[in-house]
Amino acid sequence: MTSLTEVYEGHEREVTSLRRLYAGTALVLLGAVLSVVAVLVATTNLFAGFVVELADWGMSDNFAVVRVAGVLAGVGVPAALVGVFIVLPASHRVRAAAAISASLCLLGVCLFWYAYPENWRYGSDQLTLEVSAIYLLGLFTAVWCLFTAIVNFKTRNDPGGMLEMNVTRHNTILAVDEDDGDDEDDEPAGAGGVGLFGISPEGDVETQTNVDDGGTADPAPVGGPATSDGGSTTADITSPLDETGPATAASDDRSRNRGREPTDRYCGNCRHFEYARSSSGIVPYCTLDGTAMDDMDDCQEWEPNRE
């Protein structure tokens, strides 16, 4: 049968496709190349002369070199960040914020192309502060989104050196190591496990779960009266010969429990069955054996999950 890992695989997004991997790698390399070329254009005469001879910029050669270098560097940095976002798994909200931040960076580059050099620092209508603020806002937002995506991805995929499962029990997520799979479930507070769930206690104390069929020990009642502040009345004293004693009440409770057992026996309605999140996704988990299950067929230790 189909495992839960295959069912939930489309929602986990833990493995990226090869197309996204190639696209992200290409954008990162493109951003790196554009940044390196921008530095070479601004610092060397070889690339600067190529930029000057490329077109008639209508301005001084030094201004043209700085203008082209600024545009190349301004486009290269957000291109590399977008490439990382394409490869790294992230939520739709983080991806949307990254797209908006990259758009702000591109807007800042366009404004720089418009403002430099006439409206840059020494011009009549200075736009240096506005252009820089827009570009830096987009850049810092993109860096923060990248940091958030990396932290979430690292937390989800780092089991601490071994296989780790997060088992949800009664609206509580517990970390379960694969090596500690022999631990039994904790008993719920306020309800004893002896006699109610069929668990034998430790020691030589005779109870209704570990006493022999031919034994003469009186089983403890399932639900006894509330504790008083001392003394007892005549109505509280019972005899083992009474037909309506605690033994009869316990047998009636066991009969009602057997009558409530489901007719269809499979792991889904067993009290040892839990959903667990492992490093490979959502898996069915048996708390009795402490291991992940391959199928949902019941075993001899099957017990109903209804109390």
TrEMBL record:
Q: Which residues form the Cell division protein A N-terminal domain?
A: 2-159
Q: Which InterPro entries match?
A: CdpA_C, CdpA_N
> Which residues does the UniProt record annotate as the domain Cell division protein A C-terminal?
264-305
Q: What is this protein called?
A: Uncharacterized protein
Biased composition, class Basic and acidic residues, residue ranges: 251-264
**Where is the organism placed in the taxonomic lineage, from the top?**
Archaea, Methanobacteriati, Methanobacteriota, Stenosarchaea group, Halobacteria
**Keyword vocabulary terms for this entry:** Membrane, Transmembrane, Transmembrane helix
Q: Which residues form the signal peptide?
A: none
> Where do transmembrane segments lie in this chain?
21-52, 64-87, 94-114, 134-153
- The annotated region (Disordered) lies at 177-267
What is the species of this protein?
Natronobacterium gregoryi (strain ATCC 43098 / DSM 3393 / CCM 3738 / CIP 104747 / IAM 13177 / JCM 8860 / NBRC 102187 / NCIMB 2189 / SP2)
Specify whether Membrane is a keyword of the entry: yes
**Acidic residues: compositionally biased ranges:** 177-188
